[in-house]
Specification:
GO terms for molecular function: ATP binding; ATP hydrolysis activity. InterPro entries: ABC_transporter-like_ATP-bd (IPR003439), ABCF (IPR050611). By secondary structure, the protein is mainly alpha-helical. 70% of the residues lie in helices and 9% in strands. A hairpin with an 8-residue loop joins β1 and β2. It is elongated and about 170 Å long.
Length: 320
Amino acid sequence: MNGKPHQEVIEKKAVVAAKRGAKTTSSSSSSSADKVANGITVLYLSDRTCTGVLASHPLSCNIHIESLSLTFHGHDLIVDSELELNYGRRYGLLGLNGCGKSTLLTSIGCRELPILEHMDIYHLSSEIEASDMSALEAVICCDEEKIKLEKEPEILSAQDDGGGDALDRISPILKIMLWLEKLRCCHRDYTYYKNLQGAVLTYQCAQRQRLTGRELRKLKMAARETGALKEAKDKLEKRVEELTWRLGLKKRLKTDLEEAKGQEIAKLQETLHDMQQQVEEAKTMVIKEREGSRKAIESNRRSTSSNQRDPFESKHFCLI
């Protein structure tokens, strides 16, 4: 389906619908029915209470809500929490049954939280009805309904009264379809632009890689022809051999030095042990000499004391 003819048809339908007069009683009845439906929705949503404070910038793409509280039938599900949703990320709610996951999503979908006005919210409240259709068939079925809605203004304009109130009822839908078609075209052009930009970057990288590979091959060929690569390789090999020899010599010297140190330490320990033994022997000899001299002195004292007592005793006997 071509984009431009389809867009022109939608524009014509919107112009025809815009040229219609004021709405009749049927439009007023439909608006009253919408009001009644909105009132029923409000009554249905009155079972829960959701409060929060928007903390993000009014023009930001992120949502940051502080002091979030959610109550359902007087039961606190969420109390004084924070909700932060950043642009470009996907989030999932995990929790037990009855903890308030669906209630929170419903509150967000109904804009009960202070969410920015420039953000669109689409809340999928239930699954599609059970049928034998596949996912692709379901999407095609929606496309068929869209085609029916596009053909309906032509059928109504072909009637005698020009469609009457039904065309007035469809005119807002046609305007929305026109806006969606423009949005789709913009998105398609932006997608083409991003794809072309990525293709240009890929081509530039591939071209640079190709040029660098070509230059590298040229340098390799020139090096092979001149023999510079072989000479550099020989120099590197000699350098590696020299370094390995130096490293081995260093290791051998280190091991020899450690062995010499070990031998010297063992000799010093042996000499120290011998000296300790000699000192101990000298100490024992000195102690023995001291004991011998002390015994000799004591024996001399005893002999002298005995010699001094004998004259007195002889004199005593004489006097008697």
